[in-house]
């Protein structure tokens, strides 16, 4: 059943691509076909028919995708995420080692500011 729906999915996608390419755009694009085809679809041309057809095929694509997802999830009870084995490495510590910051109250670790001679600081 899943194989049949997968083949149907590919067929729907190809049909949607063809239907979109046949539609006329503002710059005509790939929708250039003879004017005699327009009489087949009516006075407005194929624009209304192809737009409705594309919409219907899009709805079928969404329904088929949901059906495939439902059937695949019931057929496959296990998940790839459940098969992943997590190996613990004893050589790697659990907490990062943070270097210790010297205590700012200790005067022996803090350098002194340079001494400026008094005659330079006086204003005249």
Automatic annotation (TrEMBL):
Subcellular location: Cell membrane
Principal subcellular localisation of the protein: membrane
Function: Involved in protein export. Participates in an early event of protein translocation.
Keyword Cell membrane: yes
Name of protein: Protein-export membrane protein SecG
Region (Disordered): 92-124
Entry membrane topology: Multi-pass membrane protein
Pfam families per the UniProt record, alphabetical: SecG (PF03840)
Record GO terms (molecular function): protein-transporting ATPase activity
Any one Gene Ontology cellular component term annotated for this protein: plasma membrane
Source organism per UniProt: Campylobacter aviculae
Biased composition (Polar residues): 101-110
Protein family membership: Belongs to the SecG family.
GO biological process, one term: protein transport by the Sec complex
